[in-house]
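Worked example 4.2. Below are the chains of a multi-component assembly; read each line carefully before continuing.
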Amino acid sequence: MATNSVDTVHVNPQLTKKDFTSDQLVRWCPGCGDYAILSAMQNALPQLGLKKEDFAFISGIGCAARFPYYMSTYGFHTIHGRAPAIASGVKLSNPDLSVWQITGDGDSLAIGGNHFIHALRRNIDINILLFNNEIYGLTKGQLSPTSKLGLVTKSTPLGGIDRPFSAGELALGARGTFFARTIDTNPKLMTQIFVESSRHKGTSLIEILQNCVIFNDKTHGAVTAKENKDDFQLHLQHGERMLFGKEKNKGIRLNGFKLEVVTIGENGITEDDILIHDAHDEDTTKHMMLIRMQPPEFPMALGIIRAVKAPTYDDLTKQQYELSKENAKFSNVEELLQSGNTWEVK
Amino acid sequence: MSGKQQTEELEKVVIRFAGDSGDGMQLTGSQFTLTSALLGNDLATFPDFPAEIRAPQGTVEGVSGFQVQIGKIDIFTPGDEADVLVAMNPAALKSNLQWVRKGGNVIIDSDSFEERTFKRAGYEGNPLENGSLQDYNLIEAPITSLTKTSLQGIALDNKSVVRCKNMFALGVAYWLFDRSMDQTLDFLKAKFKKAPLLVEANSKALQAGYYYAETVEALPSNYKVPAAKIEPGKYRHISGNQAAAWGIIAAAEKMGKKLFFGSYPITPASDILHELSKYKNLGVTTFQAEDEIAAVCSAIGASYAGELGVTASAGPGIALKGEAIGLAAMVELPLVIIDVQRGGPSTGLPTKTEQADFNLAMFGRNSDCPIIVVASSTPSNCFSFAYQAAKLTVEHMTPVMFLSDGYLANGSEPWKIPSVKDLPEIVIPHARLNGQEFHPYVRDETKLSRFWAIPGTEGMEHRIGGLEKENITGNVSYDPANHELMVKVRQEKVSKVAGFIPDQEVIGTGSGEVLVVGWGSTYGSLLTAVKQLQGAGKKVDLAHFNYLSPLPKNTEAIFKQYKKVLVCELNMGQFAAYLRSIYPEVKIEQFNKIQGLPFTVMELKEKIIELL
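Applying the procedure described above to all two chains together yields the following structure tokens:
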């Protein structure tokens, strides 16, 4: 499976991070998590063995959507929520491009919710980076579809009463074939996931828990804070046990139909009781349970949670071109115009 | 022809088929049309069907009609009034009698006239007995029972047998107008290739209708409409939607691009999607998007990636696409938007025609956002104007709205097949590297359009977006003077297109009392009305517009040659208001109809005569 092949990464010796940095001044707020994501991306692209001109970054609207201006590749900053549709058109028309869609929680899950689920359903070979900061930053601090229940914002002075979405659950509900979660405080993990998502054939969704230092600071603190790192981050690796904790002595076990946190050595628990992560499992049940895990009861699952094979829309499109050619009664417009019922007037 | 009745020769005739929407009237009408076309008649058709797929049987709401005018003279419209109505039930009679000329022939299926069906159709009593048909030549034919009798011995259930009655009616019409049944017999063989019993049943019903009409004395005479004097060449029959689809594919092939068509189903535009989805072998990608917005956005994505991006819809869908069209205008990418207009606002009259999206096409975006707008005026010239729309959008790197409407989309006519090699060349403004740093908004001096730099090309990596940008470099810019410059450049770019489109033509002498002005699908009725008045010695000319934004550059000069300018439209006067705003010195009068129906030649003539 392509997503598991870190060791086959081709490093293009000509290109470095600097080659992917544009001449535009980066204008995010100081301390914004977006800087780290940009840097991780600029580190990831040279590892993909592609040329600079082969990348297209497509974004919608929001803080995250400024991303393409800062990349020295092809880039298209479009309109609010519509980037999946535009990226789909780009990929279907120019399948050789590596297409990256940059979006946020408002862009993808509110105004662009429909396009988001349909892109995942079709499984077009694009990569979607969802910067989830649980707030509207660019419009200066309103509730977003991922804001925690009760969050006080400019638009919810008494606290938000909308129940939040989970990007991962939505993606799996839309039959997404690749879902990974990472955090803006872990550049290494981000770069690794970007590289692997690019190798996945189909729509890859990468949720990045990103901090908005101005309007929703530390919203992911329970996961990302230094003191929580060991106990509330579960770094998943396909084929490996779900272990975490400073001593790697804590793990996730399936108890009946539910996950639970257990400690090796306590109550007779051994390493054999700990679940082995299977990112390639067609069945979404365990992936859904992993996605739902939240502190303080559970650690947050990070890494590639799901990566399964399924036909991509772009490949099926190509197949239909071929099929259509085999059965065609005409091969150009001149012949089409002359086909069927015609008559001669003398 | 061996009938005992006389044969009368006619210059033109209008026939209308009407029945329940499940009765196969569209098929009957289109078969009659195709046979007439093969015979060499000029013709025009008008399908008139309800929005509901199968409204309750026997009700006026469920009636589906198909009108066709055939002639040995040039035919520009499906005709104001029918000379012959074939009504398959009381509801069809009730809703269609208004379209029959006094003295015309009304053929009804007498089997369908009974107490129960009158009531369903909303008649108080039997319309055949209350004198309401005394001005018409009524022919009562027991179509259902004769169909059953003629199909005795064929192992089909009663329902399938009864469904053949439309072929019986078609047979009657074939005899009445002296047409051969061969084309339809061949068609049936092909259509029911896998069901020989249906071929046999439908063919027999067709023949039974023909021979019934020949034998029965109820029909006063049959008619001959000889072949029209048509320009020699190879012809085919084509509808507006099919022509639009083919025009777009032809343009894509001519420019050496693949066609990407992003669309969401909507009446009356869906047939363009159906048509294009058949041609994957010609490099056509059809993408049925999740909504109208995704449809246009996917097309913009395709254009950005270097292919020809096209979307199509009707008014409600175009309204949804507005923001994205603004994006295409802002980033200056090619995009063809096809609007097959229908009655509105909101859901309005989905299957009826209207020209009320003119303002939407011109102004339906936030801020100052001019685009190119063209309109077709006959079913077959949907090909040329779809082609032109594609040519203009790439050559000027500006979105083009192509306006068609329900009347053109579903209407059809014979079309002289063009040769692809004779279609105008399309020159793509591909960006080139000239050793200097690449900038995405370097402009062509004469057109002011930018160049198309396609992702995947080395050395042209660049960023574009919906934010205002600095001219030439394309860098985001909030500079006040730059914004004003850019707004003006985008307008000027559209205005300059006037130098690349043909001058406006006038049908007539070029000056006089009244200039009739129209645009889009009203061409046929306006032309017929004006020609008839010109024939009667009236000083009336016609200027019918296909290029709406920008207008042809000789427009004002034309208007100044007339005492009065009368703008006729199927809306409240949108084009008239636009012309008044551009040419305030010209006195512009207007004539409007907002009934979901085309103009009749009669009402146009009356209005024009008022002004003379």
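Take a moment to check your reading of the output against the notes. The two ends of chain A are 65 Å apart (CA to CA). Chain A has a mean pLDDT of 95.
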